[in-house]
Design goal:
It contains 20 helices and 2 strands. It is an all-alpha fold. The protein has a two-stranded antiparallel sheet with strand order 1-2. The longest helix has 32 residues. The model has no long low-confidence stretch (mean pLDDT 87).
């Protein structure tokens, strides 16, 4: 009986647990509840993905009302895979939070931190699983409002500025999405995504549909932080608590990428987006500029959180590049990069949290000689950095292999060359980190010890995952290929 209601439980469990964290009144108790809930969400997502891969699309009617009149949760290989990424990242990051949040968040706010954290998780999971366009907006606002609060809890006063900047840009993005959804409802009379896909081709006037597509796409690109709409991301990642930097890097932009895939390929259709409108011609240059600009700016950063934040701008470029190809190889590379980048960047930001816990700073100069004092933490940082470069046997290599293959299939040799150039620039900024860790004297770090195991274990689980899935690609690439096939089939 419970198995039949797993789609609803995916959202309801973290949603109901959030106010319970407030009632518990103590940070450690709230952390325990949040950890149990995040692992429960991961277990539910894993069971749902297994069911989708075995039996096909799952449709769950809320309240017994048939769609399109009632709200429907709808799962296929695409959002089943993204659900696994989001819940899996939360399941590994939440245990890390116990010591990190104790250090970085005031004791009287810790139980509230976990309540808001679960609300952010609820919003992200809800956006992915729902089959209703207005519900996407509602869950988007839940996750966004919670994220603003979580970022503002950073130790520096600049966290408030970062949260306010994200609030302004996030509100603009959400408003654009809402306007687009309103235009779609005006022209079709429905909010169900599957029903929208069926009715849009028969709309009597295509101009509002074109406008809706533009509004929704730009709004999603703001949430996705694609260059030049990325201005909120570096400060948000840099000044948020370490746990939230890792959580946002592993989940928020990945959900933005999912929304772009869902609206472009399922709702509007690839012919509409790439033939009637020049979406590919817009996304392709923006993604390449993001790859080069993000990597070059990262090369000159001294704060490691900011360095890897700009690296995320570049990695989002790789992800969108795969979408812009609208081909099997391109979509496979983009979708598998959702998973791979979540592992790599989540592990890197957790490693930075370990450094901050022991050293008190993540400036590049503070890392001098740290490789000998914190060998496991620094090894995780280096392996994660090599994954960003795309070194063979790391998960990052798998993503870039498919992107280069997609470019070559289209005869776009310069695009493939720019992907490789972006990797070389990444090698340069990762090399700066390696140089600081292992090739500089570290007299000031002589008393520093290795990070405690409750911080190291989640960090290394993510980093080890990036190594494992860089070699054993059957699960990730297999699911990504099936998801790409689903999108391309629905786009016809």
């Amino acid at each position: 009986m419970i198995a039949a209601h797993l789609p609803a439980l995916q959202v309801v469990v973290p949603l109901l647990a959030a106010p319970l964290c407030v009632l518990l009144r103590r940070g450690d108790r709230a952390w325990l509840l949040a950890t149990l809930v995040s692992w429960a969400a991961f277990a539910i997502a894993a069971m749902l993905l297994a069911q989708v891969l075995d039996t096909g699309t799952i449709a769950y009617r809320l309240g017994g009302w048939a769609p399109p009149w009632g709200i429907e949760y709808r799962l296929d290989a695409v959002n089943g895979f993204v659900l696994l990424v989001v819940s899996g990242a939360a399941a590994l990051i939440t245990p890390y939070a116990l010591l990190s949040v104790r250090r970085e968040v005031a004791p009287e706010r810790q139980h509230l931190f976990y309540a808001v954290y679960l609300l952010a998780l609820t919003g992200l999971l809800g956006m992915v699983i729902t089959g209703d366009a207005f519900n996407i907006y509602v869950f988007l606002e839940i996750s966004s409002l919670a994220s603003y609060v979580l970022i503002s809890l950073g130790q520096s006063r600049r966290a408030l500025t970062a949260a306010f900047q994200y609030l302004i840009l996030g509100t603009i993005g959400a408003t654009l999405i809402l306007i687009g959804i309103g235009l779609l409802y005006m022209m079709t009379g429905t909010l169900n995504l599957a029903d929208l896909a069926a009715r849009i081709p028969g709309a009597p006037d295509p101009r509002p549909i074109f406008a809706a597509f533009a509004f929704i796409t730009v709004g999603i690109l703001i949430k996705l932080a694609l260059f030049p709409l990325h201005l909120w991301l570096p400060n948000a990642y840099c000044h948020a608590p370490s746990v939230i930097s890792a959580f946002l890097a592993a989940t928020a932009t990945k959900v933005g990428a999912y929304l772009l895939l869902r609206f472009v390929f399922t709702v509007f259709g690839a012919d509409f987006a790439f033939e009637r409108l020049p979406l590919g011609e817009i996304l392709l240059p923006l993604s390449l500029i993001a790859i080069l600009a993000g990597s070059l700016v990262a090369l000159f950063q001294h704060d490691l959180k900011r360095l890897f934040a700009f690296s995320s701008v570049a990695q989002i470029g790789y992800l969108v590049l795969g979408i812009s190809f609208a081909s099997m190889s391109g979509l496979t590379g983009g979708i598998v990069h959702i998973f791979n980048h979540a592992l790599i960047k989540g592990g890197i930001f957790l490693a930075l949290g370990c450094v901050l816990y022991r050293v008190g700073s993540i400036e590049l100069s503070a890392l001098h000689g740290l490789g000998r004092r914190m060998p496991f933490t620094c090894a995780a940082l280096v392996v994660g950095g090599l994954g960003l470069v795309g070194v063979p046997a790391t998960a990052g290599f798998v993503s870039k292999w498919y992107l280069v293959q997609a470019a070559l299939e289209r005869g776009q040799w310069p695009v493939a060359a720019l992907v490789l150039i972006g990797s070389l620039i990444a090698l340069a900024y990762v090399g700066r980190v390696i140089e600081a860790l292992y090739f500089h004297p570290g007299d000031g770090n002589s008393e520093v010890r290795e990070a405690p195991w409750p911080l190291l274990v989640p960090t290394w689980l993510l980093i080890a995952g990036s190594l494992y899935f860089g070699i054993h690609t059957e699960l990730t690439v297999g699911v990504a290929e099936r998801a790409a096939a689903t999108l391309l089939e629905s786009a016809r």
